[in-house]
Amino acid sequence: MKVLLKFVLDTDPDAAWRAIRSPAVFREVSSPFLTIRSLSADGFPTIWQPGQHPVEIEGGGLIPLGKQIIRLSFAERPDGVRIVRDSGRGISGAVAIPTTWDHQMAIAPDPAGTGKTLYRDRLIIGAGALTPAAWYGMWAFWQWRGARLRQLAPSWAFDPLLPSTSSGNASAGVDPDIAA
Asked: What is the predicted pLDDT for the residue at 167?
C-alpha cells in the first residue's frame, strides 16, 4: 500500500535538499512520536551519505520498537528533480514487521515559479496480512511528518558567506579565500 504526500514548502529547493539529507531534520520531524538513535560507532553524520545506516527506534522515547537499517541512495533527474530513496528494512522488533519498504522523497522547484519547493513523498509499505494496520499507522505518522516539514521549512534558509572587504569579489558574495 502507498502513503503519498505532495505540497509546497516555504523554502528554496537547495535548502529543502539539504534538510531532507539531514539526520537532525529526520529526527526532528519524527519527534515526539519516535526517538531514533544511530547505532554507528560515530553516531549520525551531519549529512546522510549513500549506504546503510543502522538505527534503533523507540516509540515516544520509551517503548523499544526495534532496530532498522536505513539504506539510502540519491538521484538527480535531468529535469532537476532530486530524490532521496530509503530501501532499508527493519531487522528486529515491531519495525521488522513490514516486508516491503520503499520510501522516496523528491525535491523540485515549485512549478508556479514562486522560488519555493515542490515536495513529494511516497512510501510503499507491505506487511502481509498486517498491511492495512501498518498502512494506517504509517499514514497517520506521515501526516505528522508532513505538518512538521511545512512548519520547519522556513527555518532552512541558507546563510550565504559574509561579504569580504579584502577583494572585489565581495559584491558577488564570494569569499576570496575560497575562490582563490
From this structure: 46
∠ at Cα 30 (148, 28), nearest 5°? 70
Kindly indicate the confidence band of residue 48, based on its pLDDT and cuts at 50, 70 and 90. Answer: very high
CA nearest 137: which of 76, 59, 21?
A: 59
Residue with cell 506487511: 127
Give percent helix, percent strand, percent coil of the chain, each to the nearest 5: 30, 35, 35
* CA 168, 172, 175, 178 torsion-angle sign: negative
Between the alpha carbon of residue 15 and those of residues 25, 34, 88, 130, 158, the distances in Å are 12, 24, 25, 37, 6
Q: Copy the grid coordinates of residue 10.
A: 516555504
Residue 61's pLDDT is 82
Specify the pairing of strand 117-126 against strand 100-109: antiparallel
Strand ranges, E, within the chain: 2-9, 34-38, 51-59, 63-76, 82-86, 89-90, 100-109, 117-126
